[in-house]
Every structure is written in C-alpha cells, then in structure tokens.
Amino acid sequence: MKNCILVTNVDSLLGYALSFRFLEDWNRELEENYSSLKEKTEFRLLCRERQGMEDLEMLGAKIIEVADYENQEKIKEFMNGVSYVMFLPENSNQKIKQGETVIQCAKDQGVEYVTMFSYMGVDYAKNEHKHFNEYCHLEKFVAKHFNNKSHCIMRSSMWHQFFYYYGPMIEDENKIQLPMREKTEFGSIDLNDLVDAVYNLSSFSDIKNDTQQHIYNNLAQLYIANLRERNKTLFEFTPRHNITPEKLIQAVTDGLEHKNMTYEKTSSETMYDYLRRIHNDNRFRQRPIYQCATDIGEDQFKLNEDRPYTFPLGRNLNNCVIEDIVEYWKLADSGKEQHETDDLERAIGRHSTTVDQFFKHNKDQFNRFR
C-alpha cells in the first residue's frame, strides 16, 4: 500500500513552509473521519542538510538527506511506497538533470500524482532567463510523464516575504532598490496565503459525502482525489490587483511609518551583490521569536502576523535562488509579470493579503533590523 507523501527541496523557503503547514495540521486533532487516514500516512522530506529541519522532525516527518539528486538508485529508493510528490526543483546549476531524475524515478516507482511548483512568467522566458527556462522545461517534463489526471503545476508571483530581505536597506538607507522602472506593474502575494491555498486544494473536497471519504486509506490518497476533483493542471497564484514600485514605497511608508522613503531603479548586478551580503547577514541566521499574545489576553494570537515558518533565512539565498529572483524582476520590467487571476482567492476562500497589509501586520518584525 502506497501511503507516503514526499516533498523535495525542503531546504528552500517554500519547501520548508509547505512541509510545516501540512505537518502542523497533520498533528492537530482531526475529525473522526480523518483520524485513521492520518495514522496511516508518512511524510518524507528530502533536503541537502538535516540542520534546520528539527522542527519538522518533531512534527513527525521523516527527514532524508540527499547527497546526489542524480543518483537514480537512491531516488528510486526514496520513492518506494510514495503516492503523492510535491516537486520543488532544486536550487542548483543542475536543476534540469536533477529534476528529470526525480520525475523519472517517481514514474518508475508508480507515484500516482505530482504537484510541481514554479513561477509566474516562466512561459515568457527567453534565452537570457536561464533559470526560468529550466522551470519551463521541467513543467513540460512533468506533463510528458504524468497525464492530466496525475499532475498539476502551481505557479506563483513573488512573495511579500521577499521584502524582509530589504529590511536592512529600509532601516539604514530609507529606500528600496529593484532592477525595474517605477511605474512597472508586478504581482506580489503572501507566502502564508500560498501555503494555505496548496493545503486547501489538497485537503478539502467539494464532496461532503462521508461514505466517499471512507474509501481512502491514507491522506496521500485523499489529497490526490481532491486535486483530481479540481480537474485543473495549471494554477496561477497571483494577487487580484498588481502593484508598482511606487505603490510598494507607499505601502512601506504607511505600514512601517517610515517617512521620506525613496525608490531607486538599480542594475541586476547591484541587486545580486546586495542579496549576497544578506546571505551572510546575522539578522537572517534564525527565525525570529514572534509575539503571540495580544493586549486582550495571553492565550489569544495575533492572527494577522506572519507565521514563523514563512520568515526567509539567509541560507535560503544561495546563488541560484538570487539569480531566480533577479530574473523575476527582469521579466517584470519587460511587462511579463502583470497577469492577474482569482486562483489564489478561490483556493483560500477569502481576500488575499495585500502588500499594504503585510507591512502593517509585520511592523514589529521589520523593527528588528534597526
């Protein structure tokens, strides 16, 4: 019986956040119909290093270090008993070879369903967009090996949480630099909304018939059935309304109560150098301790504040990730990140978090950079 859910590249911010979101609810008291499914389910998380994965292990995940994603024998071993794969391509210069190995091994081992995570704009990538071309290639590779009932692609806009990396610049220089013009429109969504969307699409079915719920033997099978029910191979998670750098500066000004904030278009090289420095910045070595209590009572939570697992660390910024980010902004500057859909809000069942709300709700976290 295949009872395993496998997530790749859990070293990444999205991989970690997705895993935490699913495991968090897996550990909660579920209604009776789901309790037996939960007990029969295994979560396998693939990462380069176990360090930093302690919280996920405490939540019950099986953490597996991968020395070589191109080692077919090992990857097949990891895929044994796996029914559902959340495929996040590796942040490496061998993304295509490693990704093809993962997908081919999943196919060979009889994996039933694959969800691949990608970026908005990859279908517009040109030769100079190396990394986005690789994502586009892997999207096609997944579709080639898994039919429309056995896979989906989830693309997303840039996440609001990226702007935490600009906390030091905001505090020290009162400005934000991006390689795009001030009037350029682009999409930005909240990472908390994204992981909620993925969880909801996987976990909740439109079918309320309890009898049908009982036909599944574990959560992997239930997630697959719910995703198949959506009958959709491409989800595009974008904001309902795009913003511009001009509006971004206004959001920072209002949300963080910063006066005289300015925006400056910069080169891709300057942005790359800045993010490389952030990679080694001590302020991004560990996730912050979040203020959980409100003024009303210590046992009530600030629901609007970011969840700790969505805070980006310096270790998430390797060279390939930085190059991905730079490519995103270059595509945005060419007008390729303006697409708007309602996929995100339909999945979360509420209005998505705007960039204005993000800065306002997380003012205390930005104050840490002073």
Automatic annotation (TrEMBL):
Q: Specify the NmrA-like domain's residue ranges.
A: 36-201
* Membrane-traversing stretches: none
Which Pfam families does its entry note?
NmrA
Record InterPro entries: NAD(P)-bd_dom_sf (IPR036291), NmrA-like (IPR008030), NmrA-type_oxidoreductase (IPR052718)
Q: Which PANTHER family is this protein grouped with?
A: NMRA-LIKE DOMAIN-CONTAINING PROTEIN (PTHR47129:SF1), QUINONE OXIDOREDUCTASE 2 (PTHR47129)
Q: What is this protein called?
A: NmrA-like domain-containing protein
**Which organism does this sequence originate in?**
Mucor plumbeus
